Fold:
Amino acid sequence: MESSGTNAGAAAAAPAPGPVPASGPVYGPEYGWASSVLAEPVAPDLVTVPTRQGLEAVDIIRRAAPTPAGGVGPVLHDDSGDTLGFLVPPGTADAWDLPGSACTQTDGRGMRFGDVPAADSTGWLLPPEVTGSLTDPAVLRAALGEAARLIEAADNCR
Structure:
């Protein structure tokens, strides 16, 4: 189920994010995406991919987006440089099956949007207060597929 669309429409319709709470809901209307879709704050799912493929996917999504916001939602990185994590709508993990990636339900565990990441473990590549929306899973799936093909082609040219 690949899609060539973007979530730019959702990002354009989303209100500007407010101040990040010190604690509270993991994801809620104050950060955009959930405001028009979900009545209650919920925990997003997390798609984890190798860093090289994830960075390519961020570029692909941002280049395809018609708005300066870029169409990609919050992205976490680990300081070891091994993985990136894309925050996607809850329920994505139930049907995620893209080889080379994993999608897990957070169920509110772990980092909350108001938390400061531990300096020695993880941090925001694209923080929620900058992106204002979650990444559309269909857009992410298409971008990760394109990124994998680009990386394979580049590696085969060596």
In short: The longest helix spans residues 137-156. Confidence is low (pLDDT under 50) at residues 1-40. The first strand starts at residue 45 and ends at 50.
